[in-house]
Amino acid sequence: MSGVESDAGVFTFLLNNLGVQNVQFEELLTLEPDALATLYPVYGVIFLFKYPTDTPYTSTDKPLDGTFDRDAAERHFFAAQTIQNACGTQALLSVLMNKDGEVDIGQQLREFKEFTMVLPPEFRGEALSNSELIRDVHNSFAKSSPFVDETQRTSGETEDAFHFVAYTEVDGTLYELDGLQPAPISHGACTSGDFPSKVMEVLQRRIARYDMSEIRFNLMAMVRDLRIQAREIGDAEMLEREEQKRRDWQFENALRRHNFVGFAGSVLKGVVETKLNEGEGAYDKWIEAAKTKTRQRMESRKKGGGDDVEMEG
């Protein structure tokens, strides 16, 4: 499996295609508990962060924060991550499977959960990778990386790795569910009402362990479909806003499924051919004009001008 983009629209339609009803994701731009509380009911959050390479990430004895609850792996859904680049989908399922009853997860996922709960976490992870439904839905939203292989062959630099983990309240406890860890991590007693403040405290401590210059984090909340609330309170403006959001997400997701490298190459060839057909010297003049514009842009940036010079055809 390839990785999926940390985007509320991607994760929402991932849910829909898995057969889940009346649930969506919302991106959070702040760690203020009130921002999360306003989205009530909140089923859990998914946190994306840079995978640390300077310190050990996994531990068999004690996590950096909280405590391992090894018995919880038997009572609740927790799966070891056994395949690369699927941590986003696995984090989504870690919240979802533990909210069965509060959320309509659909027949296929319910049957999958019933089958895998009798297995140990490592075999649940294998079952995730072998599920045709989960694999096909995940891959349909996987990020397209048409240049990645060439880059890896020619560049000695390694790209930063990022990882998703899930946080949710289950049976009065706040759990961190991370398939790279040996067990669920308990962060203490928590109710659904306490969840926004409790989880934000944990995330603030987690982010504080990074250098101040590191800002590449992303936080998404799994919540009830906001269109339901809009209909309940009769807010036509909110309903239209949410419907437009779905239309935008659908369009963006359609674009993600396409590899535009071939299209861009064809356009470039067409432009070059047009210039060559304009007569002798037209192509060379076009190239020199482009070089001049590029130099002007670079000089403007060096001087602190900040404004880009328009490229002309």
**Strand coverage percent:** 5-15%
Number of strands: 7
Q: Helices and strands: which structural class?
A: alpha+beta
Q: Which CATH C-level class of the largest domain is it?
A: Alpha Beta
CATH level 3 topology of the largest domain = Ubiquitin C-terminal Hydrolase UCH-l3
Low-confidence stretches: 144-155, 305-313
Number of domains: 2
Q: How is the biggest beta sheet arranged?
A: 7 strands, antiparallel
Helical stretch count?
13
Q: Give, in order, the helices and strands.
A: HEHEEHHHHHHEEEHEHHHH
Strand order of the largest sheet: 1-7-2-4-5-6-3
* CATH homologous superfamily annotation of the largest domain: Peptidase C12, ubiquitin carboxyl-terminal hydrolase
Gap between N and C termini, in Å? 41 Å
Proportion in helices? 40-55%
Shape type: globular
Mean pLDDT: 82
Kindly provide the radius of gyration, computed on alpha-carbon positions and rounded to a whole number of angstroms.
Answer: 24 Å
Q: What is the second-level CATH architecture of the largest domain?
A: 3-Layer(aba) Sandwich
Task: Write structural notes for this entry.
It comes from Anthostomella pinea. One of its GO terms (cellular component) is cytoplasm. This protein is an alpha+beta fold. It has 2 domains: 8-224, Ubiquitin C-terminal Hydrolase UCH-l3, CATH 3.40.532.10; 265-302. The chain has 13 helices and 7 strands. A 7-stranded antiparallel β-sheet has the order 1-7-2-4-5-6-3, with helices on both faces. Strand 5 (173-177) and strand 6 form a beta hairpin. Helix 1 (8-17) packs across helix 11 (236-256). The longest helix has 21 residues, at 236-256. The protein is globular and about 75 Å long. It starts with 7 loop residues before the first helix and ends in an 11-residue tail after the last helix. Residues 144-155 and 305-313 have low confidence and may be disordered.
